[in-house]
Structures are given as C-alpha cells and as structure tokens.
Amino acid sequence: MEQFLAGLRTAWREDEVRPTSKPKEKAPRGRRRPDPFVTVTALMREWFEAEPWRTSRELFERLQTEQPGVFPDGQLRTLQRRLKEWRREMAQKMVFGGEAAGETPERALISANT
C-alpha cells in the first residue's frame, strides 16, 4: 500500500491522468479543402438576399444552369451549410438589430453593460 501511495505523487509526471484534470479544449476545425464557391460567393449572396425564401437546391440549380459543368451535384451540401450560416446571420440581424454579424448576443450585452 505504501508503494502505491508513494507512486501517486509522481504518476502525473509520467502522463497519468489525474481524476481532477480536465481535457483540453480542441481548436475549431477549419476548412480541409479549398472553397468550391469562392468565385461565385458574392453572386450567390446577392441571389439569397434578393430572394431569401429560396431553398439551397433552387439556388444551386440556378447556379448550375448559369455555369454548366462547373459545379457537380455533390457540392449541394456545401451550399446548404453556407445558406444555413447566412440565414443565421439574417435572423440575428432581425432579432438583435444592426449588430456586427460576428458579434454574439452575449458579447453585445457585456459591451452594453460596461
């Protein structure tokens, strides 16, 4: 028993996990591939802002019609994620006013109270 207790004092130095330790937070994962819509993002954003009720599939089909053979069907999911971000930004602007798109409501409250 004494040998076990003596080893506890130095076990953490040998990469032993202590029960009180917390796992380190991982950094957010960035893009792993080049953005396929980098050349048409501004155009797509204009279409979205002009007609926000359109689905991502409708916008994607319009893009494929205007630029045939450039965007394969497999890139629809990427556009769906992009539209989800744009809709989130638009909803935040509608709910919280003209705040910066990157500013969260919590940060706005903190900066307003200081």
* Topology order in helix (H) and strand (E) letters: HHHHH
Helix content: 40-55%
Structural class by secondary-structure content: mainly alpha
Unreliable runs, pLDDT <50, ≥5 residues? none
Oligomer: single chain
Shape: elongated
Cα end-to-end separation: 55 Å
Largest sheet: none
DSSP strand (E) fraction?
under 5%
Mean pLDDT across the residues is 81
Treating each run of at least 4 consecutive H or I residues as one helix, how many helices? 5
Task: Specify Rg, calculated over alpha carbons.
Answer: 24 Å
Extended strand count: 0
Brief summary of the model shown:
The chain has 114 residues and is mainly α. It has helices at residues 2-11, 41-50, 56-66, 76-96, 105-113. The longest helix has 21 residues, at 76-96.
Overall description:
The protein is mostly helical. The protein has a domain of 79 residues. The protein is built from five helices and no strands. The chain starts with a helix and ends with a helix. The model has no long low-confidence stretch (mean pLDDT 81).
